[in-house]
Amino acid sequence: MTHPYQEMKDMKKHKKHYDMLGYICDAQYGIPTRCPCGGQIKTDVSPNPKYRHDFDTLPGSRYFTCKNYEDDGMHFRQPWAFGVEDEVRRLRMEVNDMAEEIAKLKRIITSTSRP
């Protein structure tokens, strides 16, 4: 049987690990700016071509990758297209919200300026 202090220490370590996995899953929307580990994100191209006939024109798939990337689930390696697609979707929603707000303000201004 382990000592209660060691058991509590191990339990906190496991909880921190699982919390970090949740943060990583939630953070993989849009273009990442920082990895949850604190590392910088770089744009990377895989060295292997996606298809055999992709010679010089398409050398491989593009990724947003953590500078300290290890395949342990704690670092980012996100396909470039997914990140850009999420970011464009977010920006479109933001522009639509702003357009609605501008239209609302125009209605308020025109309704109060008439005698």
Describe this structure in words.
The protein has 115 residues and is mainly alpha-helical. The protein has helices at residues 4-27, 80-113, and strands spanning 41-45, 62-66, 77-79. The longest helix is centred in the last third of the chain and has 34 residues, at 80-113. The model has no long low-confidence stretch (mean pLDDT 80). This is Zinc finger GRF-type domain-containing protein. It comes from Brassica rapa subsp. trilocularis.
For the termini, the CA-CA separation is 84 Å
3D shape: flat
Helical proportion, percent range? 40-55%
Tell me the total number of β-strands. 3
Strand content: 5-15%
Major sheet: size, sense and barrel closure?
3 strands, antiparallel
Mean pLDDT over all positions: 80
What is the ordering of alpha helices and beta strands?
HEEEH
Spatial arrangement of strands, main beta sheet? 1-2-3
The count of helical stretches stands at: 2
Uncertain runs: none
* Strand-pairing-aware structural class: mainly alpha
How large, in whole angstroms, is the Cα Rg?
Answer: 23 Å
Organism: Brassica rapa subsp. trilocularis
Protein name: Zinc finger GRF-type domain-containing protein
List keywords for this structure.
single chain, 115 residues, mainly alpha, three-stranded antiparallel β-sheet, 50% helix, flat
Describe the SSE topology.
Blueprint: H1 4-27, E1 41-45, E2 62-66, E3 77-79, H2 80-113
Antiparallel strand pairs: 1-2, 2-3
